[in-house]
Amino acid sequence: MGRENKQWLRDLRGAVEDRESALTDLRDIVLRNLRKALAGRAHVDDSFLEDSVQDALLRILDRLDQFQGRSQFVTWATAIAIRVALGELRRSRWKDVSLDTVLEGTDHVPDRAIETAPGPEERFERQALIDKMLELIETDLTERQRTVLLAELRGMPQDEIARHLGSNRNAVYKLTHDARKKLKSALQKAGYQAEECATTLPH
Amino acid sequence: MIFTKEEIENLLRLVSLTNDAELNCEECLALVAEFAEQHLAGKSVSSGLEAVERHLDICDECREEFEALKKTLS
Ligand SMILES: [Zn+2]
Fold this sequence. Notes:
The structure holds 2 protein chains of 2 kinds. Chain A is an all-alpha fold. In chain A, 69% of the residues lie in helices and 0% in strands. Chain A folds into 2 domains: 5-94, RNA polymerase sigma factor, region 2, helix turn helix motif (Rna Polymerase Sigma Factor, Chain: A); 101-198, Arc Repressor Mutant, subunit A, CATH 1.10.10. Chain B is mainly alpha-helical. Helix content of chain B is 69%, strand content 0%. Chain B is elongated and about 45 Å long. In chain B, 43% of the residues are buried. Zinc ion (ZN) binds at residues 25, 28, 55, 59, 61-62 of chain B.
Protein backbone atom coordinates (compact mmCIF):
# COMPACT_ATOMS: atom_id res chain seq x y z
CA MET A 1 0.00 0.00 0.00
CA GLY A 2 0.98 3.61 -0.30
CA ARG A 3 2.86 3.09 -3.55
CA GLU A 4 3.65 6.03 -5.79
CA ASN A 5 2.74 5.74 -9.46
CA LYS A 6 6.22 4.67 -10.52
CA GLN A 7 6.33 2.02 -7.85
CA TRP A 8 3.00 0.58 -8.98
CA LEU A 9 4.25 0.27 -12.54
CA ARG A 10 7.59 -1.15 -11.47
CA ASP A 11 5.99 -3.76 -9.22
CA LEU A 12 3.25 -4.75 -11.64
CA ARG A 13 5.85 -5.27 -14.34
CA GLY A 14 8.38 -6.73 -11.94
CA ALA A 15 9.40 -10.14 -10.69
CA VAL A 16 6.75 -12.61 -9.62
CA GLU A 17 6.90 -11.73 -5.95
CA ASP A 18 6.57 -7.95 -6.43
CA ARG A 19 3.91 -8.48 -9.01
CA GLU A 20 1.82 -10.77 -6.81
CA SER A 21 2.01 -8.41 -3.88
CA ALA A 22 1.14 -5.36 -6.00
CA LEU A 23 -1.75 -7.21 -7.59
CA THR A 24 -3.14 -8.19 -4.21
CA ASP A 25 -2.94 -4.59 -3.02
CA LEU A 26 -4.42 -3.22 -6.22
CA ARG A 27 -7.23 -5.74 -6.06
CA ASP A 28 -8.09 -4.64 -2.50
CA ILE A 29 -8.04 -0.96 -3.37
CA VAL A 30 -10.06 -1.32 -6.55
CA LEU A 31 -12.59 -3.54 -4.77
CA ARG A 32 -13.00 -0.98 -2.01
CA ASN A 33 -13.38 1.85 -4.53
CA LEU A 34 -15.84 -0.06 -6.66
CA ARG A 35 -17.96 -0.83 -3.62
CA LYS A 36 -18.06 2.90 -2.87
CA ALA A 37 -18.70 3.84 -6.49
CA LEU A 38 -21.65 1.49 -6.90
CA ALA A 39 -23.12 1.76 -3.41
CA GLY A 40 -26.90 1.66 -3.37
CA ARG A 41 -27.26 0.16 -6.86
CA ALA A 42 -29.45 -2.84 -7.52
CA HIS A 43 -27.77 -6.17 -8.40
CA VAL A 44 -24.46 -5.15 -6.88
CA ASP A 45 -23.38 -7.79 -4.38
CA ASP A 46 -20.02 -9.18 -3.26
CA SER A 47 -19.80 -11.73 -6.00
CA PHE A 48 -20.64 -9.16 -8.68
CA LEU A 49 -18.00 -6.80 -7.29
CA GLU A 50 -15.36 -9.50 -7.10
CA ASP A 51 -16.03 -10.69 -10.65
CA SER A 52 -15.89 -7.12 -11.91
CA VAL A 53 -12.58 -6.45 -10.16
CA GLN A 54 -11.16 -9.65 -11.60
CA ASP A 55 -12.13 -8.60 -15.15
CA ALA A 56 -10.92 -5.09 -14.51
CA LEU A 57 -7.49 -6.23 -13.30
CA LEU A 58 -6.92 -8.07 -16.57
CA ARG A 59 -7.87 -4.98 -18.49
CA ILE A 60 -5.69 -2.75 -16.31
CA LEU A 61 -2.66 -4.99 -16.79
CA ASP A 62 -3.34 -5.07 -20.47
CA ARG A 63 -3.25 -1.28 -20.64
CA LEU A 64 -0.37 -0.46 -18.30
CA ASP A 65 1.50 1.10 -21.20
CA GLN A 66 -1.31 3.56 -21.73
CA PHE A 67 -1.04 4.99 -18.20
CA GLN A 68 0.64 8.37 -18.59
CA GLY A 69 1.08 9.22 -14.93
CA ARG A 70 -1.19 12.26 -15.13
CA SER A 71 -3.38 11.08 -12.26
CA GLN A 72 -2.93 8.73 -9.33
CA PHE A 73 -2.49 5.21 -10.65
CA VAL A 74 -5.32 3.91 -8.49
CA THR A 75 -7.72 6.57 -9.79
CA TRP A 76 -6.91 5.50 -13.32
CA ALA A 77 -7.33 1.84 -12.42
CA THR A 78 -10.62 2.58 -10.65
CA ALA A 79 -11.97 4.38 -13.71
CA ILE A 80 -11.32 1.24 -15.76
CA ALA A 81 -12.97 -0.96 -13.13
CA ILE A 82 -16.03 1.30 -13.09
CA ARG A 83 -16.33 1.03 -16.86
CA VAL A 84 -16.15 -2.75 -16.62
CA ALA A 85 -18.70 -2.99 -13.81
CA LEU A 86 -21.23 -0.49 -15.15
CA GLY A 87 -20.87 -2.09 -18.56
CA GLU A 88 -21.82 -5.41 -17.04
CA LEU A 89 -24.79 -3.93 -15.17
CA ARG A 90 -26.04 -2.25 -18.34
CA ARG A 91 -25.58 -5.48 -20.27
CA SER A 92 -27.65 -7.49 -17.83
CA ARG A 93 -30.34 -4.80 -17.64
CA TRP A 94 -30.68 -4.63 -21.42
CA LYS A 95 -29.89 -8.17 -22.47
CA ASP A 96 -33.48 -9.15 -23.25
CA VAL A 97 -34.40 -5.91 -25.02
CA SER A 98 -34.19 -6.04 -28.78
CA LEU A 99 -33.23 -3.06 -30.89
CA ASP A 100 -36.58 -3.31 -32.72
CA THR A 101 -38.53 -3.03 -29.49
CA VAL A 102 -36.66 0.13 -28.62
CA LEU A 103 -37.13 1.65 -32.08
CA GLU A 104 -40.82 0.80 -32.25
CA GLY A 105 -41.94 1.73 -28.77
CA THR A 106 -41.69 4.89 -26.77
CA ASP A 107 -41.30 3.01 -23.49
CA HIS A 108 -37.65 3.84 -23.23
CA VAL A 109 -37.70 7.60 -23.19
CA PRO A 110 -34.65 8.75 -21.26
CA ASP A 111 -34.77 11.04 -18.23
CA ARG A 112 -33.50 14.00 -20.17
CA ALA A 113 -36.86 15.00 -21.60
CA ILE A 114 -37.81 18.41 -20.27
CA GLU A 115 -41.08 20.11 -21.11
CA THR A 116 -41.17 23.88 -21.06
CA ALA A 117 -44.08 26.21 -21.55
CA PRO A 118 -42.99 29.00 -23.88
CA GLY A 119 -45.28 31.74 -25.16
CA PRO A 120 -47.21 31.29 -28.44
CA GLU A 121 -44.70 33.14 -30.62
CA GLU A 122 -41.81 31.16 -29.24
CA ARG A 123 -43.77 27.94 -29.54
CA PHE A 124 -44.39 28.64 -33.21
CA GLU A 125 -40.69 29.19 -33.90
CA ARG A 126 -39.79 26.17 -31.88
CA GLN A 127 -42.22 24.05 -33.85
CA ALA A 128 -40.64 25.24 -37.09
CA LEU A 129 -37.25 24.19 -35.79
CA ILE A 130 -38.55 20.79 -34.75
CA ASP A 131 -40.17 20.31 -38.17
CA LYS A 132 -36.87 21.25 -39.80
CA MET A 133 -35.06 18.70 -37.68
CA LEU A 134 -37.54 15.97 -38.61
CA GLU A 135 -37.00 16.82 -42.26
CA LEU A 136 -33.19 16.82 -41.95
CA ILE A 137 -33.22 13.51 -40.10
CA GLU A 138 -34.99 12.02 -43.11
CA THR A 139 -32.99 13.74 -45.83
CA ASP A 140 -29.48 14.06 -44.42
CA LEU A 141 -28.92 10.98 -42.27
CA THR A 142 -28.39 7.35 -43.19
CA GLU A 143 -30.71 4.65 -41.93
CA ARG A 144 -27.96 3.42 -39.63
CA GLN A 145 -27.42 6.89 -38.19
CA ARG A 146 -31.16 7.28 -37.57
CA THR A 147 -31.28 3.87 -35.89
CA VAL A 148 -28.39 4.58 -33.56
CA LEU A 149 -29.53 8.09 -32.68
CA LEU A 150 -33.04 6.98 -31.84
CA ALA A 151 -31.91 3.99 -29.81
CA GLU A 152 -29.58 6.25 -27.84
CA LEU A 153 -32.24 8.88 -27.28
CA ARG A 154 -34.40 6.10 -25.87
CA GLY A 155 -31.71 5.25 -23.37
CA MET A 156 -30.16 2.16 -24.92
CA PRO A 157 -26.47 2.03 -23.95
CA GLN A 158 -23.96 2.37 -26.78
CA ASP A 159 -22.42 -0.99 -25.95
CA GLU A 160 -25.82 -2.61 -26.38
CA ILE A 161 -26.52 -0.82 -29.65
CA ALA A 162 -23.08 -1.96 -30.80
CA ARG A 163 -23.83 -5.54 -29.83
CA HIS A 164 -27.03 -5.55 -31.90
CA LEU A 165 -25.24 -4.02 -34.87
CA GLY A 166 -22.14 -6.19 -34.59
CA SER A 167 -20.08 -3.09 -33.91
CA ASN A 168 -18.32 -1.46 -30.94
CA ARG A 169 -18.85 1.55 -28.68
CA ASN A 170 -16.29 3.72 -30.45
CA ALA A 171 -17.84 3.06 -33.84
CA VAL A 172 -21.30 3.78 -32.46
CA TYR A 173 -20.02 7.04 -31.00
CA LYS A 174 -18.55 7.97 -34.35
CA LEU A 175 -21.85 7.27 -36.10
CA THR A 176 -23.78 9.57 -33.79
CA HIS A 177 -21.03 12.19 -33.79
CA ASP A 178 -21.08 12.28 -37.60
CA ALA A 179 -24.88 12.45 -37.53
CA ARG A 180 -24.84 15.36 -35.06
CA LYS A 181 -22.26 17.20 -37.14
CA LYS A 182 -24.37 16.75 -40.26
CA LEU A 183 -27.49 18.01 -38.52
CA LYS A 184 -25.64 20.94 -37.01
CA SER A 185 -24.23 22.12 -40.30
CA ALA A 186 -27.55 21.58 -42.11
CA LEU A 187 -29.33 23.62 -39.44
CA GLN A 188 -26.75 26.37 -39.80
CA LYS A 189 -27.25 26.36 -43.55
CA ALA A 190 -30.97 26.73 -42.91
CA GLY A 191 -30.24 29.81 -40.79
CA TYR A 192 -30.32 28.33 -37.29
CA GLN A 193 -27.46 28.90 -34.90
CA ALA A 194 -26.28 26.35 -32.37
CA GLU A 195 -27.37 28.50 -29.43
CA GLU A 196 -30.91 28.77 -30.77
CA CYS A 197 -31.23 25.01 -30.81
CA ALA A 198 -30.76 24.80 -27.08
CA THR A 199 -32.52 28.00 -25.99
CA THR A 200 -35.78 26.67 -24.63
CA LEU A 201 -34.09 23.71 -23.02
CA PRO A 202 -32.59 24.57 -19.65
CA HIS A 203 -29.53 22.42 -19.17
CA MET B 1 -38.89 5.21 -37.27
CA ILE B 2 -40.67 8.00 -35.43
CA PHE B 3 -38.89 10.55 -33.29
CA THR B 4 -41.13 12.11 -30.65
CA LYS B 5 -41.07 15.82 -29.92
CA GLU B 6 -39.14 15.22 -26.69
CA GLU B 7 -36.59 13.17 -28.58
CA ILE B 8 -36.11 15.94 -31.11
CA GLU B 9 -35.70 18.43 -28.26
CA ASN B 10 -33.06 16.22 -26.70
CA LEU B 11 -31.35 15.77 -30.03
CA LEU B 12 -31.32 19.54 -30.52
CA ARG B 13 -29.57 19.92 -27.20
CA LEU B 14 -26.95 17.37 -28.28
CA VAL B 15 -26.54 19.03 -31.67
CA SER B 16 -25.99 22.39 -29.98
CA LEU B 17 -23.17 20.80 -27.94
CA THR B 18 -21.58 19.17 -30.97
CA ASN B 19 -18.00 19.98 -31.96
CA ASP B 20 -16.04 18.95 -35.03
CA ALA B 21 -13.44 17.23 -32.88
CA GLU B 22 -14.71 15.22 -29.94
CA LEU B 23 -13.18 12.54 -27.78
CA ASN B 24 -14.72 9.11 -28.11
CA CYS B 25 -15.48 7.01 -25.03
CA GLU B 26 -12.13 5.26 -25.13
CA GLU B 27 -10.23 8.55 -25.24
CA CYS B 28 -12.43 9.92 -22.49
CA LEU B 29 -11.62 6.95 -20.27
CA ALA B 30 -7.89 7.57 -20.70
CA LEU B 31 -8.26 11.13 -19.36
CA VAL B 32 -11.17 10.93 -16.95
CA ALA B 33 -9.06 10.04 -13.87
CA GLU B 34 -6.98 13.18 -14.24
CA PHE B 35 -10.12 15.21 -14.95
CA ALA B 36 -11.88 13.84 -11.86
CA GLU B 37 -8.90 14.58 -9.60
CA GLN B 38 -8.72 18.17 -10.85
CA HIS B 39 -12.46 18.54 -10.56
CA LEU B 40 -12.47 17.37 -6.95
CA ALA B 41 -9.51 19.55 -6.04
CA GLY B 42 -11.65 22.48 -7.21
CA LYS B 43 -9.08 23.36 -9.83
CA SER B 44 -10.11 24.87 -13.11
CA VAL B 45 -9.92 22.32 -15.85
CA SER B 46 -6.56 22.44 -17.55
CA SER B 47 -6.27 22.70 -21.28
CA GLY B 48 -6.59 19.39 -23.01
CA LEU B 49 -9.18 18.31 -20.48
CA GLU B 50 -11.99 20.60 -21.69
CA ALA B 51 -12.64 17.93 -24.26
CA VAL B 52 -13.41 15.51 -21.42
CA GLU B 53 -15.93 17.95 -20.00
CA ARG B 54 -17.56 18.30 -23.41
CA HIS B 55 -17.71 14.54 -23.90
CA LEU B 56 -19.35 14.13 -20.50
CA ASP B 57 -22.05 16.63 -21.51
CA ILE B 58 -22.92 14.49 -24.48
CA CYS B 59 -22.28 10.91 -23.45
CA ASP B 60 -24.61 9.45 -20.80
CA GLU B 61 -22.48 6.38 -20.14
CA CYS B 62 -19.24 8.25 -19.60
CA ARG B 63 -21.12 10.74 -17.43
CA GLU B 64 -22.47 7.91 -15.29
CA GLU B 65 -18.97 6.43 -14.97
CA PHE B 66 -17.51 9.81 -14.04
CA GLU B 67 -20.14 10.37 -11.34
CA ALA B 68 -19.31 6.94 -9.89
CA LEU B 69 -15.59 7.70 -9.99
CA LYS B 70 -16.12 10.96 -8.11
CA LYS B 71 -17.69 9.03 -5.24
CA THR B 72 -14.46 7.11 -4.77
CA LEU B 73 -12.41 10.29 -4.51
CA SER B 74 -14.46 12.24 -2.02
ZN1 LIG C 1 -18.56 8.28 -23.74
